[in-house]
Amino acid sequence: xxxxxxxxxxxxxxxxxxxxxxxxxxxxxxxxxxxxxxxxxxxxxxxxxxxxxxxxxxxxxxxxxxxxxxxxxxxxxxxxxxxxxxxxxxxxxxxxxxxxxxxxxxxxxxxxxxxxxxxxxxxxxxxxxxxxxxxxxxxxxxxxxxxxxxxxxxxxxxxxxxxxxxxxxxxxxxxxxxxxxxxxxxxxxxxxxxxxxxxxxxxxx
Length: 205
Description:
Helices cover 55% and strands 19% of the residues. The protein has 205 residues and is α+β, with helices and mostly antiparallel strands. The chain has a single domain, classed as Nuclear Transport Factor 2, Chain: A, CATH 3.10.450.710.
């Protein structure tokens, strides 16, 4: 399934995103240098973790979880994925959804990333998308398979850079998951609570 492949590919490269709370940025202006530094540092820390065979599996998973949460703007990404359904949700539903989304995404990626021990990432360049966002292009290489081109959409806000989307070989994580989530909500009579329950169940599996 396309989504499964994208999750796997994206998850593997999210390993390239681990730490760094950004370089200085000009307020209300995209910062390509800061965005590039953010992705590069996240990559460096994540790859170091993945290639360290002395770290216990549980400790590695916990460290990757921490790096993911620090490197991504979870609320912005989760809102983009939910799309129009976000506007219809009340405050309690939004809070529950964001929490469930974070647990689901982090659990999915950390589980896949923890199995890797030979990865590398090359920064290819960056360009400004708008006054807030930059796109950092990378090439991911693992021990098996063809290299993957991964673009990281980085938003600079108040001098801090955070990743808000991952584009694997031209396919956006946010767009892909939005389609899947919307289909699930529609299949349950438009009830957001059903999506929240499904995400919680997957995260706990």
